[in-house]
Amino acid sequence: MTRKARRRLHPIAIMAGLGKELKNMVVPLLVIMAAGSRHGFSWTDILVPLAALIYTLVMGVLSWLRFTYEWDDTCLVVEEGVFVRKKRSIPLERIHGISVTEGIWQRMAGVVQVHIETAGDALGEAEVTLRAISREEARRLQRCVEQAKHKAENASHPEPLANRPHPALFTLSMKEVWAASLTSGGALGVVAALCAFLSQFSDFIPYEALVRDIQSTWNGHGRWYIALLILSILLAAYGVAIVQNMIRYASFVVRKQEDTIVIARGWLERKAVSVPVDRVQGVVIHENWLRRFFGYASVSIIHAGGALDGGPSGEVVLCPLVKKHRIVPIVQACLPEYRLDVPFCPLPQRAKSRYMLRPLYWLTIPVGVAAYMERPWGAGLLFVLPLALWIGARRYQAAGWALSSKQLSLRNGWFRRTTAHLLKRHVQSLEIATTWWQRKKQLVTISASVMPVGTRSRVVDVDEEDAASIYRWLQGEKGDQT
């Protein structure tokens, strides 16, 4: 195969790049304009924002003109840079992940955006981003990457990759998309994002005066109005989170193409993520209390690269919402080496009191103070303490670990139960820590980490002998276990 002629991106890439840059500039420009107009508006107040806007437009056009790419059956070559010219040559077999996105601008022009990731990338960053190329060209690039990988592994494929059928292993109906959105619990993230946005205007919004007004309203027995306002904000944030998740998980489908897991999803922005099986470092099952009540869970895979799916670095959602009895066959079809139906070993009985008392360490004083200040009705808050004891007991029952010849599984949490399944060869480190109180009861905390750096799973209050057996297993001194 000869190298394709050097090409430029579709012109819509200019608008896509400008849209991203302008979105990042909105808040700083508003702050500059507001600061300049505090003593009266003047046309000079818009000179700096106007100059920044013109500079961004010119640089966007020049960046598009100077960006070229080409590839053959061995490598991808990209040249870019306005003032400093940079040329990169990436061997196709070194590419570990490709995600294809169709944003609003790309859909208008009938093109896609391709993110290409290699082993040397910073977490959450693509090594190369082709902002606007045709769908057919993106598919050809993916096929070339697959063929280059198989050639590097001395594998033969008599049947062309493009002609092989790839049936869907998992899909989400609109009803399931709606259920996943309702039970996602993303309202707090929306509130945090809103607070972060408002904090940019701390010089112009009189927050101290607002706090004083809230305090006076509270002291003036207007606390029910404040509680209603807070509840309204949380409900609005919950509604925004539902809409976000519905847009994100619409048309969700998972396919297995040779040795690659392909996950496609999205409504306004169609996105397809390709994850090579050999780059998967573990499987994580999340169950919040509401989904667990109805027998549902969500499944993610730990990817050795960056955040291909827009979530936490190294984590890609495999099933946003799935019945628990369907998890094992789906994961087996995608990742045959993993065993999810393993029996878990419970924690020792002497750890139960620690789990039950742990929530009281930080709840007793604030609940006691609130009950005293709001007496006599505040006494009802004291019922939180036995509830905390009950939740601690449930967390103790949920926690556990499992070990086999090739896999370590760790489980913790109750409100949001997390079960991580890690293959032995992917475990980067195993940490065993103990406090003075744990040492008295011969208990330890074990945590295992995989790539990328910082991806860690742990279980608190494991028996010392059990932790030692896990450590020997990792060191290869222990025989096969079941």
Automatic annotation (TrEMBL):
Domain of life: Bacteria
Residue spans crossing the bilayer: 46-65, 177-202, 222-243
Pfam name, any one: bPH_2
Residue ranges annotated for the YdbS-like PH domain, each copy included: 64-143, 251-308, 396-474
InterPro entries cross-referenced by the UniProt entry: UCP026631, YdbS-like_PH
UniProt keywords, alphabetically: Membrane, Transmembrane, Transmembrane helix
Residue ranges the record marks as coiled coil: none
Name the record gives this protein: YdbS-like PH domain-containing protein
